[in-house]
Amino acid sequence: MIYIAALYAVVSVITYITYVVDKKAAIKNRRRVSEKSLHLLALAGGWPGALLAQQRWRHKTQKTSFRVFFWLTVIANLACLVGFVLYPYGG
């Protein structure tokens, strides 16, 4: 379990930083991080960091389609986590 928590922490920090980089790029009209990349990071376990960044930086909070897909990635990630914890060896 400690490894899972560590993985979530590391991926969340990476995701948070990615959101900040994207927010700054948006402000400066520079090349942005793709929404697909942000969703993949959330799906990989970085959704806590994404949620914090969304709230702290007010980033990606207005686009409804992004938010809906984001919450679907959270649900998918948690479903996989529950499956892994309850059935660690496929049994």
Q: What can you see in these coordinates?
A:
This protein is an all-alpha fold and 91 residues long. The protein has one domain. Helices cover 79% and strands 0% of the residues. The chain is built from three helices and no strands. The protein has helices at residues 2-27, 35-57, 64-86. Helix 1 (2-27) crosses helix 2 and helix 2 (35-57) crosses helix 3 (64-86). It is elongated. The two termini are 18 Å apart. The model has no long low-confidence stretch (mean pLDDT 95). Keywords: Membrane, Transmembrane, Transmembrane helix. The chain crosses the membrane at residues 6-22, 68-89.
Name its key features.
mainly alpha
Quick synopsis:
It comes from Halomonas casei. The protein is built from 3 helices and no strands.
Please describe the topology of this protein.
Blueprint: H1 2-27, H2 35-57, H3 64-86
Give the proportion of residues in helices.
over 70%
Count of DSSP E strands?
0
Radius of gyration: 14 Å
What percent of residues are in strands? under 5%
Query: Roughly what is the average pLDDT, rounded to an integer?
Result: 95
The number of helices is 3
- Main sheet record: none
What's the number of domains?
Answer: 1
Terminal-residue CA separation? 18 Å
Q: Pairing-aware structural class of the strands and helices?
A: mainly alpha
